[in-house]
Amino acid sequence: MDPLLSSSEPVVQTLFRLELRLKNSMVCAAIFAIPPLLRGTAGVIPGCSSFLRPKYAVLCYCTVNGNMKSRRRSDHLERTANDFRQEIISKAKVCGITSESEMVKRLRLAVTEKEFTFKAGQWVDFFIPGIAVVGGFSICSSPGLLEQKGELELAVKRTTHPPAHWVHTQCALNSEVALRVGGNFFFDPDPTDTPVDLVLIAGGVGINPLFSILLHVTDLHRKQEKGGTGYQIGMTNLLYSAKNTDELLFRKHILALTNAFPGKITCSFHVTQQSSEICENLQPYIKEGRISGKDLEKYISEKTLWYICGPPPMIESISKLLENLGVAQKNIFFEKWW
């Protein structure tokens, strides 16, 4: 066990020790000192100076990762050192555990801190008492669930990485952890913003933040149906690629949303290594092979925003396809998740 950490030590004290070690290692102390007037409205553009720059036309939607080149780092805090982080750290208790697939567990967490908020698409620093490594997991639920019930959800793939390993081997109902929201990748329009169409492109467990965005979109549609005066969202199209249908997370829920909002939400599933027969209810939505330029070109318009999350090679490939199709870089947003 790390000498700085103890399973009996209070969670908040553990967090302060982790932050102190992060600062001492000179990763990037600036992530803890975002000026209050800019917090939540401006992103941090990766770079040595960690300077802040608001994104003009898409400020209300999200900020874009500025570096397309992949730099593989094993530590979540290092990879995201220049990303926006909230100051609030909240205790949370595991209140639900389900198996989303053979490799992925879905956790529901009850958050203690009332001021804790997030935007659809963001992730959390995941602090586990007694474990030195800080996890980084994208939120897969909508902000609406947090507002209504004080809860959020994470879908965690089984790996040997200590936080993910803990989720799959030791996490139980009522386990206590702590969370801090971060990330420059989100969709959070104001009610008066110009309507846009969305294309959400996911690879593997990269579906998590995009599923959060999709659920947020459905909340916006429901507000409109009830006669609300919220944001007027346009079409939302999800393209989701995985090895096989068993690895298409949330597939039943996604299909239910397309049926609940016909003409407003569509989905297309792409499988690259399918060996078994595809079940009948999925067949109309399945394409074999990777997402291609031909799959993307039908959605191109000046009012379309493109959100991509998956392995870095996929991000780079899709971004290049979009560039070749004439999509402006300012309309492409991506989150690389290792």
TrEMBL record:
CDD domains: FNR_like (cd00322). It holds the Pfam family NAD_binding_1. Gene3D superfamilies: Nucleotide-binding domain of ferredoxin-NADP reductase (FNR) module, Translation factors. It comes from Gekko japonicus. SUPFAM superfamilies: Ferredoxin reductase-like, C-terminal NADP-linked domain (SSF52343), Riboflavin synthase domain-like (SSF63380). It comes from the Eukaryota. Residues 81-190 form the FAD-binding FR-type domain. InterPro entries: FAD-bd_FR_type (IPR017927), FNR_nucleotide-bd (IPR039261), Oxidoreductase_NAD-binding (IPR052128), OxRdtase_FAD/NAD-bd (IPR001433), Riboflavin_synthase-like_b-brl (IPR017938). Keywords: NAD, Oxidoreductase. This is Oxidoreductase NAD-binding domain-containing protein 1.
